[in-house]
Amino acid sequence: MRGRSVGAPRRAAARPTGPALPRLLGLRANPIAAVEQGARAIRDPVAKLRYLRQSLERFETLDERIQAVPFAPARWALNRVTQVERARPLFSRNPNGALASPPRRRPVPVATRARRAAHAAVLLLAVAAGLAIAAYPRAQPTEGTDSGLPPVAEELPVPQGALTPEDVWRVDSGDAFELYSNGLRIDTTFAVAGEEPRRYRAFSTTGGLEPGIHDEPVGILYHTSESDLWPLEESFNEKLRDSSQGLLQYLRRRHVYHYLVDRFGQVFRVVEEKDRANHAGMSIWSRGDRVWLNLNGPFIGVSFETRWAGGRALPITRAQLEAGRRLTDYLRDKWDIPGDMCVTHGLASVNARKHLIGHHVDWARGFPFEAYGLPDLYQRPPPAVALFGFGYDEQFLAVMGEPWPGVRDAERALAAEAAGSGRSLDDVRRERRALYDRWLSELAREPKESTRRASARPAPKRAASEGD
To answer: For residue 371, what is the DSSP state?
Structure first.
């Protein structure tokens, strides 16, 4: 994000070139209508897709700058003036593929504001401002610096042998909870249906777009919420609780993530597993010769309420660590998800237009794969590089310092292929990137009606015993 220092979970992006955007300033501006109007004039589907990407990226750039403003009332005023909130549901990248903006507090009632103004409580406001300034660094450390608080996360002992989920079943349930045999308790108070059912297509490295339409998840994508944090201390208990509740309300309205693990280790279902949630954005993952693009459809989004902070230390509490492992066991058992399909957002997120990895970098390092009984996917060549020749830029290195080991392995494999075929490395990369662009265009041309036809697949393993 512009203006963020090293370690910010969302990378900065250069201002794109392309079709001019309609006027943003003015209360009557409607970003969605303006983009749609411009797109109607373009008949070529590839050119239209390019125009939509570039246009929305400019709105996202404006949104990034607004969210970087440290004064909340100023952010609110800028949002009202630019009306950029109207475009947020269309963004390809929300903060870490999740929040389109921080959860907003409820507006103060007019009567209260009038009473405060009538009393001319200048002194009280000054005192409140002073207290806020004093408390703010503890609640939300300046990015790129240490918080000054002792770490609250602890290492979770690695289980003996491989962690293979077995016999995870629902033992009890009520109006607002589900309890499972491995100790997992899911709070369903905030659960909602998604905006659309889970429907997606897959590709094959040998045959391209496969004909089947799928409706069951094949993987788990881990995120960090990047929301405001209060110190994990008893004196802040009420604010901790209110902050989590506000975050959940926001995620529920925006259909973001399927699950949220709060700082006390409580697991909340946000979007039903059978539906798509907004969490992955432009992303790539593969297994064997099968490839998935844009993982909202094929993956379940699991977010930890925390800030990634560059992966310098484990950013979650022990309670979150343990609850996340139980949730992972449950999901893997229910949907028969292999370990190498449990990946982090930072490893899968891409900038499709620029062919760059690490568009979002939450959990781009530091995820406790071993403690979860999962393979270390930082060692695996990312498909964005290995299959499609994606690269990275200086902004990525400014955040990461060095790519994870799998990236280097993929780069060496591409160089070896180029040398063996007598071509330049740039030629190999261009060929691979052209394949990605072609596949992405095929997905964009898919008629929406076809996604309503799900391929016939067996029911999830535990569905019958759970009474779903």
So the answer is: G
Distance CA 34, CA 59 (A): 11
Say whether 278 sits in a helix, a strand or coil: strand
Please say whether the dihedral angle defined by the alpha carbons of residues 61, 62, 64 and 68, taken in this order, is positive or negative.
positive
Cα angle 121, 123, 128; round to 5: 95
Range 68-73 average pLDDT:
65
Same domain for 222 and 151, yes or no, is: yes
Helix (H, G, I), strand (E, B) or coil at 330: helix
Domain at 210, CATH number: 3.40.80.10
Host domain of residue 45: 1-91
Phi, psi for 170 (deg, rounded to 5): -80, 125
Do residues 66 and 176 both lie within one domain?
Answer: no
Asked if residue 142 and residue 64 are part of one domain, the reply reads no
Q: How remote is the C-alpha of 190 from its chain's centroid?
A: 19
The dihedral sign for the CA sequence 453, 457, 463, 465: positive
HSE, CB side, 13 Å, CA atoms: give it for residue 209. 17
Q: Are strands 208-209 and 203-204 parallel, antiparallel or unpaired?
A: antiparallel
Domain count, the chain: 2
- pLDDT tens sequence across 309-359: 777 767 899 999 999 999 999 999 999 999 999 999 999 999 999 999 999
* Residue 411 CB partners (closer than 8 Å, separation 6+): 385
Residue 193 lies in a domain: yes
Instruction: Show the CA angle centred on residue 56, arms to residues 52 and 60, nearest 5°.
Output: 165
Q: Which residues contact 119 (CB under 8 A, 6 or more apart)?
A: none
For residue 214, list its beta bridge partners. Answer: 200
The answer to the question of residue 98 being in a domain is no
Measure the CA–CA gap between 348 and 382, rounded to whole angstroms. 7
> Which H/E stretch holds residue 350?
strand 350-351
Q: Using CA atoms, how far apart are residues 399 and 15, in angstroms rounded to an integer?
A: 18
Tell me, rounded to whole angstroms, the distance of Cα 89 from its chain centroid. Answer: 14
**Which of 26, 60, 91 marks a domain boundary?**
91
Is the pTM higher than 0.70?
no
Question: Which band of pLDDT confidence, cut at 50, 70 and 90, is reported for residue 423?
Answer: very high
Burial class of residue 275 (count of CB atoms within 10 Å of its CB; 0-12, 13-18, 19+): middle
Residue 110 inside a domain? The answer is no
Residue pair 164/372 in contact (Cβ under 8 Å)? The answer is: no
pLDDT score recorded for residue 180: 96
Looking at this protein, which amino acid is placed at residue 385? V
On whether residue 108 sits in a domain, the answer given is no
Query: Are residues 160 and 54 part of one domain?
Result: no
| Boundary residue ending a domain (75, 91, 107) | 91
Is the pLDDT score of 429 beyond 70?
A: yes
For residues 85 and 153, state if they share a domain.
no
Alpha-carbon span 442 to 434, nearest angstrom: 12
